[in-house]
Amino acid sequence: IYTLSLHDALPILVFEVTTSGGRVRLAGGDWSARLATTGPASAPTPLPEGTAVRVTAIDGAVAVVVPLPRP
Question: Do the bridges between strand 12-18 and strand 52-59 make them parallel or antiparallel, or are there none, so unpaired?
């Protein structure tokens, strides 16, 4: 069994991702992903391609991500 730790992964680049879905490049492959929500009434805006993100959770085969702060 191969196990990959995705929590607190190094920043990764994303293809457009929304709260309903998208794709990220992680560990040499493309993964299904979605934005983490910050509350029921305040969903984040879509992240454009090239945004650096952090994986905060894995939900089945989907990486849940948040954008990293810009320097």
Answer: antiparallel
